[in-house]
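Notebook entry, structure prediction.
Reason for the run: the old model in the group folder had no record of what sequence produced it. Starting over properly, with the input documented here first.
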Amino acid sequence: MFKHLAANPKKSNGRLYKEFNQDLRNPFERDRARVIHSNSFRKLKHKTQVFIESESDYFRTRLTHSLEVAQISRSICRLLELDEDLGETVALAHDLGHPPFGHIGEDALNESMNNYGGFNHNDQTLRVLTFIEKRHPHFNGLNLTWESLEGIVKHNGVIKKNLPFHLINYSKLHDLNLNYQPHLESQIASISDDIAYNNHDVEDAIRANLITLDDISELSFFKNIIINLKENYKDIPDKLMVYQVLRNSISTMINDVYENTKKNLNNNINSIEDIRMSKSFKINFSNEMQKNCYTIKQFLFDKVYNHNNLYDKRNFSKKIITSLFIYFSDNNNKLPIDWRNQNIEIERLICDYISGMTDRFALNLYKEINE
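New structure, fully documented this time:
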């Protein structure tokens, strides 16, 4: 269908550092494997998505979220006949820079780094991929292809000003064309992220008893799905109804992206260059679905993310991150041996160290320090 608009691994712009250990996989397949086998990817297993991962085995973590985003991304890429490996690579890697305790951990680290270049998880993802991960004797990072890095960096859109800390420095070595739109596979990973959390955060919130099936039925998008399901399943338990609602919701959103994107790409888009020169993403929802997703997102902010039951946990999580930063700033010699004597600012080093922690490691370390 749109094969001519797919990123082509045979025409990849290559890697920053040349490698000679070729195998039977194409460059995007190798990138996907490098992300999956990285230390940072494994640690997502014990990093918060919305709910503290230690509270239940059923709540999503950053790892399960990333896997679900990757699955949706691959599905949409396949429908449009784009490169599935690249779409999956961007999706799998997009949250590698997240610190412990989700966005509250990110806010705490950013405040701690206020005078030292700040912190945001997207920039940290690039830092993980190009500096922190150590896999090769001759260079730092995973040495992903230009296409994977470009897609990961710009999966939320072009970056024309206010470049974050690491991207400023990395751009001097590797030009990722920040002023131009990313390839379609990157745009797909981005919208797949929206689909994933707009549905899965609802499921986790219901499991946590913060909201109910009746609450989401107040949203017209979910209400229509529930009405249709009840016509087919007369006596379905609420728990099974939730699964069916979200299953239908995800399918509906994916179908909407597919149909709307076909219209976009059939409208004077003939080459990858046309994609790059576009004023906005070509992978997007219809106007009606965009409104539905905005309503769901606002609902989640009001009813879930800012719920009183999470307030104390959020504050405690922030206290942990802030305290650890202060502790290591005052006690550089307490950093692990392999984190000392690196030729970077001590505050950035501490930030890297803390951001790579899992929730449980940060919590246990905090308790150990404060015993």
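Summary: Residues 188-309 form one domain.
The old model has been moved to the deprecated folder.
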